[in-house]
TrEMBL record:
Residues 564-626 form the T-SNARE coiled-coil homology domain. CDD domains: MCP_signal. The chain crosses the membrane at residues 12-30, 295-318. This is Methyl-accepting chemotaxis protein. It is a multi-pass membrane protein. The keyword Nucleotide-binding does not apply. SUPFAM superfamilies: Methyl-accepting chemotaxis protein (MCP) signaling domain, Sensory domain-like. It holds the Pfam family MCPsignal. It comes from Ectothiorhodospira magna. Residues 323-372 form the HAMP domain. Keywords: Cell inner membrane, Cell membrane, Membrane, Transducer, Transmembrane, Transmembrane helix. GO terms for molecular function: transmembrane signaling receptor activity. GO terms for cellular component: plasma membrane.
């Protein structure tokens, strides 16, 4: 259904849907805002209660401090303190208490006078209880330290929590003690109840550990009434109608009976020591909430009107600036369906519609140019198809002639394959003969190689023998030198023996024994000389024989070297013959391989020529088909010209 709607109808429908969507979001937001505004109204009212209480508490503190400062400088109290006249001070304190209660409706007011050493001098509510040490109280210690006026509403005493104000008592500038005023919270209760509101001050039940005097006070939930004398049945009934747990959790409470708020009091360590609870008729808060709700509904109504006006304005602007231009161009296109020279109205605004219609005009101009080129192309195509038919006929004739030539080439390739087979057979015979010659030459090379190796071993052995003979000749020479040395020693020994014989002859009988020994030594030296001479001749004969053998070995080694060279040359010649035979064998293999390849190539040529013959036949069929396609293409070109002729370009 949505597809059949006009542009204007779809636009109005979209605007309506968006408006309803925005309206739904606005309703959700306003509903949420209404809850926030209600919470805000309650929170603001609770804050207002707290401010009112703080102002009244501060007023009580100021009153108590003013009284303490005034009475601390009163001559009556100073003289009574100096003269220790408690009766006078007690009477004056009770008179002051009654006047404050009657004239100022200040509620409970008690007087407490301290001495300079931090002890009680007078309690207006207990005349006979005095001279006790009160330095355990933080406010008393502060006064002893600072000796200046101050107020405190967070000090928990034995009887609970009160508003305290302390001022120093001075005589001729010397600190003599302090004047303390203690006020209850019943005066604040009276003020709230006079306005139709409620107020009560409660203490947590666990405070009895530091304020045992409140243990018997009235219990309300988890709390104790701060002082039963301050609060009557009206305040107690008010407190009993509240959900104290919810009130402590949220800080305020709104039910059908009361709107209540709480002000919590903590000591210096952060411990909860009391809660001030205020209440009033819930209609006061509910009226503020209703005003905010009415304001939120008014905002919703204004939003609905704004959405409707905005939707109608947008619809009118769209109709004037968009729909009318589109409708006019659609009608123009309907009247000139095949006229590509048509130009659409682009309007007077530089917007998306202007870009769209300008793009359409550019598209029609491009299409007109394309159709003109297509018309020219169809004309050229008709001419080209005629030429294609003529050329295909010529190609068909040439293909027939090519078939005949291919048959002739196939016959020649068959003959060439037979010749190649015969050449391959002869090349195989040549290769076999070359292989036999190569085997013979390799056997000759092996024999020559063995001969060369034997001659080399002989040459090495003769060289080793020559070296051994050299060492023998060297050893003989060394022995000759040793023998020469022995001859020299024998000659010297002979001379020594001769000298010994001469000396023995000179000695006479005493040297006879020594002469015999000297004669034996001389004979031994003579035999040694003869033996060394014989050894010398034998060594010379050995050296001569070694020289002859060395000469013969050198001649044999030279002859063996020449034989090895001749054998090596023979081996090289045989290797060259083997290489030549191997090359002949390789040429035979190559010739056989080439002949075989030529035979295969000839066979492949025959097969390729057969395929060419088949391809030529297929080409003839394709040329006939081309003639038919060309005729059909000419007919299509004529039809395309007729179709383009329907457009005005």
């Amino acid at each position: 259904m949505f597809k059949n709607l006009s542009l204007q109808q779809r636009l109005v429908l979209n605007i309506s849907i968006i408006g309803l969507f925005l309206l739904a979001i606005s309703l959700i937001y306003v509903t949420h805002l209404r809850g926030q505004m209600a919470d805000q109204a309650v929170a603001e009212r609770s804050e207002a209660f707290n401010l009112i209480f703080q102002e009244r508490l501060q007023a009580k503190k100021d009153l108590a401090l003013g009284l303490a400062m005034t009475l601390s400088s009163s001559p009556i109290y100073i003289n009574a303190l100096e003269s220790d006249d408690r009766d006078l001070a007690h009477r004056r304190a009770n008179h002051l208490r009654q006047r404050l209660f009657d004239e100022l409706q200040a509620g409970t007011v008690n007087t407490h006078i301290h001495t300079a050493d931090g002890r009680t001098w007078l309690r207006s509510w207990s005349r006979d209880f005095y001279d006790d040490d009160i330095t355990f109280r933080p406010s008393v210690n502060r006064m002893l330290r600072e000796q200046s006026p101050f107020t405190d509403a967070t000090e928990v005493g034995r009887s609970g929590l009160t508003i305290r104000a302390l001022a120093p008592i001075r005589v001729d500038g010397e600190y003599r003690g302090a004047f303390e005023i203690a006020m209850g919270f019943d005066g604040i209760r009276q003020g709230f109840e006079a306005e139709g509101r409620r107020y009560i001050f409660l203490l947590p039940a666990d405070i009895t550990d530091i304020a045992p005097g409140v243990a018997r006070n009235t219990v309300i939930g988890d709390f104790l009434v701060a002082n039963d004398s301050w609060f009557g049945s009206t305040a107690l009934d008010f407190a009993r109608q509240l959900d104290l747990d919810a009130l402590m959790h949220h800080g305020f409470l709104l039910n059908e009976d009361w709107f209540a708020s709480v002000y919590k009091v903590h000591d210096d360590q952060g411990r909860l020591i009391g809660v001030h609870i205020f209440g009033e008729d819930p209609e006061t808060v509910l009226s503020s909430v209703e005003q905010m709700v009415h304001f939120s509904w008014l905002m919703i109504g204004l939003l609905v009107v704004l959405i409707i006006v905005m939707g109608l304005s947008v619809a009118w602007m769209v109709r004037q600036n968009i729909v009318r231009l589109i409708v006019a161009n659609v009608e123009r296109l309907g009247r000139h369906q095949n006229d590509l020279t048509l130009q659409l109205d682009t309007g007077k605004y530089q917007d998306e519609l202007q870009q769209l219609f300008s793009a359409f005009n550019g598209y029609t101009a491009t299409l007109r140019q394309v159709l003109q080129e297509v018309a020219q192309t169809t004309t050229d195509l008709s001419s080209a198809t005629g030429q294609l038919v003529s050329q295909s006929q010529t190609s068909q004739k040439m293909a027939f002639e090519q078939t005949q030539e291919v048959n002739q080439v196939a016959s020649a390739s068959t003959q060439m394959a037979a010749s190649a087979t015969e050449v391959a057979s002869q090349a195989a015979s040549t290769q076999e003969a070359a292989n036999q010659a190569q085997a013979s030459t390799r056997e000759g090379v092996g024999v020559v190689t063995s001969t060369v190796q034997a001659i080399d071993r002989l040459a090495r052995e003769m060289s080793a023998l020559k070296t051994t003979l050299g060492r023998l000749e060297e050893g003989s020479s060394n022995i000759g030198e040793v023998i020469t040395t022995i001859e020299n020693i024998a000659e010297q020994t002979n001379l020594l023996a001769l000298n010994a014989a001469i000396e023995a002859a000179r000695a006479g009988d005493h040297g006879r024994g020594f002469a015999v020994v000297a004669d034996e030594v001389r004979q031994l030296a003579s035999r040694t000389q003869r033996s060394t001479g014989e050894i010398q001749q034998m060594i010379q004969a050995v050296q001569q024989a070694a020289n002859d053998v060395s000469t013969a070995i050198e001649a044999g080694a030279e002859q063996a070297s020449r034989c090895a060279e001749r054998a090596q040359e023979a081996g090289n010649s045989l290797e060259q013959i083997d290489s030549s035979v191997n090359q002949v064998s390789e040429w035979g293999v190559q010739i056989a391989s080439a002949a075989h390849q030529q035979s295969q190539v000839a066979e492949e040529i025959s097969a390729n020529l057969a395929r060419i013959n088949n391809l030529v036949a297929e080409a003839l069929d394709a040329m006939q088909n081309t003639q038919q396609v060309s005729k059909g293409l000419a007919e299509r070109a004529e039809s395309l010209n007729t179709l383009i002729g329907r457009f005005k370009i």
